[in-house]
């Protein structure tokens, strides 16, 4: 039983779960717009997500404790390096234009993790992550680009009105999905980060999340191409998202946000595939 728990913890902590979630959202976009799936692109997204997330999460730990890393962190480092090699391999399989788009997002990820700002002005960390109130919007923007805009540009799809609505929906979806994490982390986050729950409290945060969830669903009816099965699936996802938000509190179960909330896009991809 301990072995299974350690494997599950590695699955979560090594960012495999979040990478599958990102790939799930990419898959949802491709099927929603009836675009053929490029598996090389999907593999690139998976390896890039693992590499990027682990870089952001563990850069500081590796920097200050390199000689005395815990065994679990060493395992994650090795896994991240292997994923980086996979990222390099599939980089050569992408279009030049697509690589250009990802380079811009890569710069944002780098600045998000690496100190480059005056620390006296921008908190102790000196990076984008530390700028008051910016974190959730940066992550939502990156996820929107990676899971909606770039996959369609990679397939030379015309960025029409429906794509714009899908991008807005995805942006708000990510913000809503992050709220349980921000509620969970209220005990540990510096007040200077000025997260949404820190600024307006948990109750008002949930109200905003409810309104955004309703907006995400209603925006589906403004698309030029309306499909009932896709709308039903979106409704199920919105209900799950809403339920997870309402159940969120500071004293969450260990895997509530990191597994269940993070895993909603995986279920979304399965449901869309089943109804395709």
Walkthrough of the structure:
The protein has one domain (2-274). It is 71% helix and 0% strand. The chain is built from twelve helices and no strands. The longest helix has 26 residues, at 39-64. Residues 64-68 and 121-127 have low confidence and may be disordered.
Q: Main β-sheet: number of strands, strand sense, barrel status?
A: none
Order of helices and strands: HHHHHHHHHHHH
Could you state the oligomeric state of the chains shown? Answer: single chain
* Helix and strand composition category: mainly alpha
Mean pLDDT: 86
- Residue ranges: pLDDT <50 for 5 or more in a row? 64-68, 121-127
Query: Helix count, per DSSP?
Result: 12
Number of strands: 0
Domain count: the total is: 1
Strand coverage percent: under 5%
Radius of gyration: 19 Å
Per the principal axes of the C-alpha atoms, what is the gross shape? Answer: globular
Q: What gap, in angstroms, lies between the N and C termini?
A: 38 Å
Helix content: over 70%
């Amino acid at each position: 039983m301990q072995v299974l728990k350690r494997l599950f913890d590695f699955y979560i902590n090594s960012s495999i779960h979040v990478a599958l979630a990102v790939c799930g959202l990419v898959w949802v976009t491709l099927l929603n717009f009836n675009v053929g799936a490029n598996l090389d692109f999907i593999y690139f997204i998976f390896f890039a997500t693992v590499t990027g997330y682990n870089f952001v999460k563990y850069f500081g730990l590796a920097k200050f404790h390199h000689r005395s890393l815990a065994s679990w962190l060493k395992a994650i480092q090795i896994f991240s390096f292997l994923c980086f090699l996979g990222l390099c391999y599939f980089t050569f399989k992408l279009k030049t234009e697509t690589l250009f788009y990802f380079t811009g997002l890569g710069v944002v990820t780098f600045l998000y993790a690496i100190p480059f700002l005056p620390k006296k002005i921008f908190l102790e960390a000196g990076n984008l992550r530390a700028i008051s109130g910016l974190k959730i919007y940066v992550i939502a923007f990156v996820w929107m680009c990676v899971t909606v805009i770039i996959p369609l540009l990679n397939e030379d799809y015309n960025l029409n009105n429906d794509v714009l609505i899908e991008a807005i929906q995805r942006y708000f979806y990510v913000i809503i999905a992050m709220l349980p994490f921000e509620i969970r982390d209220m005990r540990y986050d510096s007040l200077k980060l000025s997260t949404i729950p820190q600024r307006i409290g948990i109750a008002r945060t949930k109200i905003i999340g409810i309104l955004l969830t309703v907006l995400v669903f209603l925006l589906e009816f403004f698309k030029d191409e309306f499909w009932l099965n896709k709308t039903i699936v979106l409704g199920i996802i919105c209900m799950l998202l809403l339920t997870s938000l309402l159940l969120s509190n500071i004293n969450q179960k260990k895997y509530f946000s990191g597994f269940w909330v993070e895993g909603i896009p995986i279920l979304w991809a399965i449901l869309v595939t089943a109804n395709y």
